[in-house]
Design goal:
Elements (H helix, E strand, L loop, with lengths): L1 H8 L1 H42 L4 H10 L4 H13 L3 H14 L5 H15 L2 H14 L4 H13 L3 H13 L5 H13 L6 H15 L3 H11 L1 H6 L10 H5 L8 H5 L2 H10 L11 H9 L5 E9 L5 E2 L15 E9 L1 H11 L2
Antiparallel strand pairs: 1-2, 1-3
The protein binds zinc ion.
Length: 348
């Protein structure tokens, strides 16, 4: 017994016990952290799975009617669905919210519902919603602007002009909208002679110098001679894609020979040999290649308002709805047309 007590009191024994305890604590904390990490991953997986599975309409109706989530949170969720292109889900949420709304958010919900119908392409429904908002609140500029867009997309230009009046009364600058609507009405008028349309489009353009791209895109297409006659050399860069795609027999060499950008452009395309270099990188490369390669120009369209890039030209930006904000960006690409022609020739 005495031996045992002596050994128990031995400092070496204490050190051994200490290290055993440290070892046990380390091992148990290692296993504990491993276990908790596993549980965390499990719950994260479940959360991500739940996030991917959007609630059904019935589940959503239940959730909204229970009122566990605030209306603002549901509105945020609906706007996220809309941004991701799931308009159906977004519309379901707004419609359900309108059923339980106590009147405090009705106007905002109606506006968001109308906007989503517009984005989803349900123009008639969007129109009814905006008209409904304006019946009770005629001085709602945002609803007026969207109603204008709806009428424009429906090609109901007379009604669109009627919307400009209240916007004007609310001190919104409507001049560009009015010019644009006049131009749209002209271009889409099937009963009018094309030359008469071109002349009236030029009148709109000459009034304030607005809508250059829109007017010249149309006139270069139907009457290049008239377009060159009214051509403003300072707008060459804005119209670069239209000029680049003009047929060789439609060029006005007198005007081209007096404009340095046009000389560079058509030398790069191989129609003339007026310059040996260009300050525009893409044109400079093409001039130096001297049509010996199958490179050509490609175009992208950027909105000066929201900086969104589009593969096609536009007159009203589909993202920010600004008018006449198109800018053209050049890039060099492989010419499939030239390659195909060469391949076709090789079989002859
Ligand atoms: Zn834009």
């Amino acid at each position: 017994m005495n031996t045992f007590f002596i050994e128990f009191r031995d400092p070496l024994f204490g050190i051994i016990i200490f290290f055993v305890l440290v070892f046990m604590i380390t091992v148990s904390s290692y296993w504990w952290s491993k276990y908790t990490n596993k549980e965390k991953i499990k719950s994260l997986d479940k959360f991500l799975k739940d996030l991917k599975q959007t609630p059904s309409v019935e589940e959503m109706q239940n959730l909204i009617s229970k009122g566990n989530l605030s209306i603002k949170s549901w509105m945020l969720l609906a706007s996220l669905y809309s941004k991701n292109g799931d308009f159906e889900k977004s519309l379901d949420i707004y419609n359900e919210l309108l059923k339980v709304d106590d009147g405090l958010n009705t106007r905002e919900l109606m506006f968001l519902l109308g906007k989503t119908y517009f984005k989803a392409g349900f123009l008639e429904r969007a129109k009814q919603i905006f008209l409904n908002i304006l019946k009770n609140n005629p001085r709602t500029p945002e609803a007026l602007k969207y109603l204008l867009l709806v009428y424009e997309y429906m090609r109901d230009y007379d009604s669109a002009f009627e919307v400009l009046e209240p916007l004007d009364e609310l001190e919104h600058n409507i001049e560009l909208d009015a010019h644009y609507l006049r131009a749209m009405r002209l271009i889409n008028d099937d009963t009018m002679d094309m030359d008469a349309k071109a002349q009236q489009l030029l009148d709109i353009y000459k009034h304030d110098g607005d809508l250059t791209y829109m007017v010249f895109e149309y006139i270069f297409r139907i009457n290049p001679e008239l377009a060159w006659k009214n051509f403003d050399g300072s707008k060459s860069e804005l119209l670069v894609d239209i000029l680049w795609s003009l047929d060789s027999d439609k060029l006005d060499l007198d005007i081209i020979s007096k404009n340095s950008f046009l000389k560079e452009l058509y030398t790069a395309r191989g129609d003339i040999k007026e310059v040996t270099k260009s300050s525009v990188f893409e044109l400079d490369v093409l001039i130096n290649l001297d049509t010996k390669s199958n490179a050509t120009l490609s175009f992208e369209y950027i909105c000066d308002g929201c900086k969104q890039i589009f593969p096609f030209a536009f007159h009203r930006c589909s993202s920010c709805h600004a008018i006449d904000t198109v800018g053209v960006e050049l890039s060099l690409v492989k010419s499939y047309y030239r390659t195909d022609s060469e391949e076709n020739n090789s079989f002859q």
